[in-house]
């Protein structure tokens, strides 16, 4: 059955995830009426699984966008600062490695459900945004500027006219699939041969945190790793990342005995803190990870944003942050074009594609850093050298991690400067074991020769 949806809106968004919800606020603040279709129930009203990753790391790019729309003060109570990586070795030894070297250089753990609920509240409070939950986009008729959306409860299909439609419907985007079907964009989709599983370290008997609260915990084990992020209820959400196949893999752990043995051997210090290990491991879904890159993010009156345009692996903690930066970039493009969408869409796309491709690469590289490089003393020496060079020449040298997490330096610039910086760090750390032995005068000369001043 088909019916015409009343109240045609100026802007239609598909997907009320983190990016679609924030995007709707930006647009409402520009005076647009916004209609958002979301296939899932509203997490504010119905208890549904938060989906991928219960909590996430929020960093400067995301914070910048949240400040632009004026919600950061309300977000703050949801945040737990994470000052650095707490590394857990096989023997249970701990080492805290700071992410930055200034007090404000921290990242924050935030609940996905808490943040998205707050953004939806804020969007509705504008009086210009209407969410339609349990409505799934099925098809787009681009020439007629019309899309078909199915009410998932009644199975009734609504035909909705749009002026401009934003696909914020995540990595498996149906909007992107509709554009792809017309061969109007080339999409590359690379599935990682590693997946993830979420486990829980609950609060202690006194309601206390059982691991150090203000850190992102990592158990790096070479080919695989587990991480843990704190939650406001004093629990930690643990995520085990492992190959799909092979000796140490999801495929290899078939029963509780094998699971116990695996944890006894590789994660002994934390095993006792996961009382529901067997249940969590076998009942929780195994999540797939991948990278999606699109050549074109818009076709006619339809544009992609967030994971729909550029899903990345989670190892730099930047997927949501990059999506929030998209929202700020689309807003800037609308501002620059006096809200002429036909001009704004290509401006937005041109400002983002190289940058999101760059963070996609860096996110993949960071997996190796987190699960393996952090075990190498040379890695820690290079980190120390990088901090010292930043202290000496802050206008020329900022460690790559800091450029990505604590600054708004475009991702592509962070990537290209990072390559040069890494060569300098290799040269300075070659044949050296301690920071005291490093020739920093040479280091300063190399930096000044090879790196342009930061813009
Ligand atoms: P989504 O969050 O996927 O939202 C898309 C929405 O669209 C969903 O609500 C979905 O139900 C809806 N939808 C889909 N199809 C349709 C349809 N046909 N019709 C209607 N609605 C539809 N990022 C960080 O910045 N920091 C982190 O620490 C971090 N950690 C992560 C850890 C893991 C394990 C994973 C998997 C990801 C992590 N990310 C992190 C990435 C982050 O989750 C994503 O980048 C972010 O969720 C993207 O938001 P989005 O709104 O674009 O997409």
Poorly predicted regions: 1-9
Q: What percent strand?
A: 15-25%
How is the biggest beta sheet arranged? Answer: 9 strands, mixed
Classified by CATH, the class of the largest domain is Alpha Beta
Helix-residue proportion? 25-40%
CATH architecture of the largest domain: 3-Layer(bba) Sandwich
Give the mean pLDDT: 95
Give keywords.
alpha/beta, globular, disordered N terminus, nine-stranded mixed sheet, seven-stranded mixed sheet, binds flavin-adenine dinucleotide, FAD/NAD(P)-binding domain, 455 residues, 19 strands, 3 domains
Can you characterise this structure?
The chain has 455 residues and is of the alpha/beta class. The chain has three domains: 10-83 and 110-189 and 290-366, FAD/NAD(P)-binding domain, CATH 3.50.50.60; 192-288; 376-450, no CATH class. It has helices at 18-29, 60-68, 72-75, 112-125, 174-181, 256-266, 268-271, 277-283, 307-310, 319-336, 341-371, 377-392, 400-406, 411-429, 440-450; strands spanning 2-4, 9-14, 34-37, 55-58, 80-82, 84-88, 94-98, 107-111, 129-132, 135-141, 146-151, 157-167, 187-201, 215-220, 225-230, 236-243, 287-294, 298-299, 302-304. A hairpin with a 5-residue loop joins strand 15 and strand 16. The N and C termini lie far apart (56 Å). The chain binds flavin-adenine dinucleotide. The site of flavin-adenine dinucleotide has 34 residues, from helix 1, strand 4, strand 10, helix 9 and helix 10.
């Amino acid at each position: 059955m088909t019916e015409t949806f009343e109240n045609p809106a100026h802007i239609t968004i598909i997907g009320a995830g983190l990016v679609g919800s924030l995007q709707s606020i930006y647009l409402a603040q520009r005076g647009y009426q916004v209609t958002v279709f979301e296939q899932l129930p509203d997490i504010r009203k119905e208890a549904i699984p938060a989906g991928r990753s219960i909590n996430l790391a929020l960093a400067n790019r995301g914070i910048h966008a949240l400040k632009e729309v004026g919600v950061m003060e309300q977000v703050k109570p949801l945040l737990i600062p994470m000052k650095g990586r707490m590394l857990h070795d096989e023997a249970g030894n701990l080492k805290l490695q700071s992410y930055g070297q200034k007090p404000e250089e921290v990242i924050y753990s935030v609940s996905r459900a808490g943040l998205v609920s707050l953004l939806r509240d804020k969007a509705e409070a504008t009086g210009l945004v209407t969410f339609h939950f349990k409505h799934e986009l099925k098809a787009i008729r681009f020439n007629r500027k019309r899309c078909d959306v199915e009410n998932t409860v009644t199975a009734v299909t609504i035909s909705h006219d749009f002026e401009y439609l934003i696909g914020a419907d995540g990595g498996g985007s149906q909007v992107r699939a509709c554009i792809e079907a017309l061969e109007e964009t080339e999409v590359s989709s690379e599935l990682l041969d590693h997946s993830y599983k979420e486990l829980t370290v609950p609060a202690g008997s006194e309601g206390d945190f059982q691991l150090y609260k203000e850190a992102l915990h990592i158990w790096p084990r070479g080919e695989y790793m587990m991480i843990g992020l704190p939650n406001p209820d004093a629990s930690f959400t643990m995520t085990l990342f492992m190959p799909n196949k092979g000796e140490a893999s999801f495929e290899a752990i078939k029963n509780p005995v094998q699971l116990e043995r695996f944890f006894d051997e590789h994660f002994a210090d934390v095993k006792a803190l996961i009382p529901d290990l067997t249940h969590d491991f076998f009942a929780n879904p195994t999540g797939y990870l991948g990278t999606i890159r699109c050549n074109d993010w818009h076709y006619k009156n339809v544009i992609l944003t967030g994971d729909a345009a550029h899903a990345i692996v989670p190892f730099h903690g930047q997927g949501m942050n990059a999506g929030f930066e998209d929202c700020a970039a689309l807003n800037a493009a609308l501002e620059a074009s006096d809200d002429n969408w036909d001009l704004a869409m290509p401006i937005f796309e041109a400002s983002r594609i190289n940058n999101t491709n760059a963070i996609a690469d860096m996110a993949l590289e960071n997996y190796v850093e987190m699960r393996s490089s952090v075990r190498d003393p040379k890695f820690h020496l290079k980190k120390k050298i990088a901090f010292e060079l930043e202290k000496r020449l802050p206008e020329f040298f900022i460690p790559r991690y800091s450029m990505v997490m604590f600054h708004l330096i475009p991702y592509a610039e962070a990537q290209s400067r990072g390559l040069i910086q890494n060569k300098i760090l290799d040269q300075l750390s070659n044949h050296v074991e301690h920071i005291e032995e490093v020739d920093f005068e040479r280091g300063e000369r190399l930096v000044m020769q090879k790196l342009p001043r930061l813009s």
